[in-house]
Automatic annotation (TrEMBL):
Subcellular localization: Membrane
Binding of heme, residues: C420
Native species: Trema orientale (Charcoal tree)
Family to which the UniProt record says this protein belongs: Belongs to the cytochrome P450 family.
Keyword Oxidoreductase on entry: yes
Name under which the protein is recorded: Cytochrome P450, E-class, group I
SUPFAM superfamilies: Cytochrome P450
Coiled coil regions in record: none
GO CC, any one term: membrane
An example Gene Ontology biological process: brassinosteroid homeostasis
One Gene Ontology MF term: oxidoreductase activity, acting on paired donors, with incorporation or reduction of molecular oxygen
Superkingdom field: Eukaryota
Length: 478
């Protein structure tokens, strides 16, 4: 009898818990529509499912069609409101620090570090943002232009001597070497350990189910981070033991900050910042460059206009063999149109997370305090109501449009006070690479090129090219 009573209570308790999970309470209004999925698991498996479509992710598209532009779900055990609504997205960015704050799931903070710049708020975030701008601000980028151009020319010359190049991997290596040099004076040729290999291991498991068991992708990801962080810590300690007389990289700058009396900077924050900057700079930019080259090869009219723009720059140059100037870079109008169109289609940042600091009412719905919110840029960038034929690669759609920050309809680099501080560095690398490429080289796509997408990363699957010098090709034709 007692056993039956206890069993009945257990069943009733579980049933009630499942019901409360699937029907969360909202005291001050009405929750957005949607499904919370399975208990604890939610809709996580559907969310993480990869696909090869260039369109809005099926998870988002299916639920938007069913529930509208704002809907609720549950991911990795957390209630989340997903927004594809341009007005709500803009409202979220504008109310950063007041009604919303930056937030990422525990699995992401475990991966990127609990002291990473994306998880910090208020004065600490602004302090780190200003530190980064010291390296990647306009004045620093002006001085960096010759190094970026030299790196691009050197790699293109090397690749032209090879039968084929896997472009995503090759450009990632090029950008990582340059960024690591500027940040920490790291040179693989003079190091006993390969820092980039640890980042590659990290990236391969970055978007995976968060199961930290040996053999899983997530475990390999955490191990890659651990090894990379150990290397960065050793480099920091080595630099502390042998300080330089003059600043030559970002490590020197942060070491000076760490030694100031009353500094709020810590070693943990410094190392997490280095880690995030290294990851973000080479992974996202190399993807954008690869997609640009792929799209240019598929759209000869775009390539023709791009080439003509850079030929005009060379023609107007006082000294034919001088390097790119900041004025020339800023004059690359069509190049920037190509870049903006590429990142619109690429949706390199397919989800931007925030957390509500108090109950929020919007368009008849209530988002309770403490709930997570995911802004979905792909749904904004591929919205046919804003972009005619949204899946088409059409750089001319940006003609005459000034883009100095995020907007309701373009958030490839974020928006509001958290607009990406390395945006200009990304554009410099892309523009300079394209300048070096189209002025001197032709290329043929050899194989691959499918774009595999997950909610956190997109990457070309085996996009290989053969790069040839124009002068050699023209000589052979003659």
């Amino acid at each position: 009898m007692w056993a039956l009573s206890i069993g009945a209570l257990v069943i009733i308790s579980i049933t009630h818990w499942v019901y409360r999970w699937r029907n969360p309470r909202c005291i001050n209004g009405k929750l957005p529509p949607g499904s919370m999925g399975l208990p604890l698991l939610g809709e996580t498996l559907h969310f993480f499912s990869p696909n090869t479509s260039s369109d809005i992710p099926p998870f988002i598209k299916k639920r938007t069609k069913r529930h509208g532009s704002i809907f609720k779900t549950s991911l990795v055990g957390r209630p989340v409101v997903i927004s594809t609504d341009p007005d709500f997205n803009y409202f979220i960015f504008q109310q950063e620090g007041h009604l919303f704050q930056s937030w990422y799931p525990d699995t992401f903070t475990e991966i990127f570090g609990r002291q990473n710049v994306g998880s910090l708020h208020g004065f600490m975030y602004k302090y780190l943002k200003n530190m980064v701008l010291n390296l990647f601000g306009p004045e620093s980028l002006k001085r960096m232009l010759p190094e970026v151009e030299q790196a691009a020319n050197g790699k293109l010359q090397h690749w032209s001597s090879q039968d084929m190049v896997e472009l995503k991997e090759a450009t990632a290596r090029m950008i990582f070497d340059l960024t690591a040099k500027k940040l920490i004076s790291y040179d693989q040729n003079n190091s006993s350990e390969n820092l980039r290999e640890n980042f590659v291991a990290f990236i391969q498991g970055l978007i995976s189910f968060p199961l930290n068991i040996p053999g899983t992708a997530y475990h390999k990801c955490l191990q890659g981070r651990k090894r990379a962080m150990t290397m960065l810590k050793n480099l920091l300690q080595e630099r502390r033991a042998n300080p330089r007389k003059q600043q030559s990289d970002f490590f020197d700058y942060v070491l000076e900050e760490l030694q100031k009396e009353g500094t709020i900077l810590t070693e943990a924050i410094t190392l997490d910042l280095m880690f995030v900057l290294l990851f973000a700079s080479f992974e996202t930019t190399s993807l954008a460059i690869t997609l640009t080259v792929k799209l240019l090869g598929e759209h000869p009219l775009v390539l023709k206009e791009l080439t003509e723009e850079h030929e005009r720059i060379l023609k107007n140059r006082e000294h034919a063999y001088s390097g790119i100037t900041w004025k020339e870079y800023k004059s690359m109008t069509f190049t920037f149109q190509v870049i903006h169109e590429t990142v619109r289609l690429a949706n390199i940042v397919p989800g931007i997370f925030r957390k509500s600091l108090r109950d929020i009412q919007f368009k008849g719905y209530t988002i309770p305090a403490g709930w997570a919110i995911m802004v979905c840029p792909p749904a904004v960038h591929l919205n046919p109501a804003k972009y005619e034929d949204p899946l088409a690669f059409n750089p001319w759609r940006w003609e005459g449009i000034e883009l100095n920050g995020g907007s309701k309809h373009f958030m490839a680099f974020g928006g509001g006070m958290r607009f990406c501080v390395v945006t200009e560095f990304t554009k410099v690398q892309m523009a300079v690479f394209l300048h070096c490429l189209v002025k001197k080289y032709r290329w043929n796509a050899i194989g691959g090129g499918n774009i595999v997408r997950t909610p956190g990363l997109q990457f070309p699957n085996g996009f290989q090219v053969q790069i040839m010098e124009k002068a050699i090709e023209e000589k052979e034709k003659a």
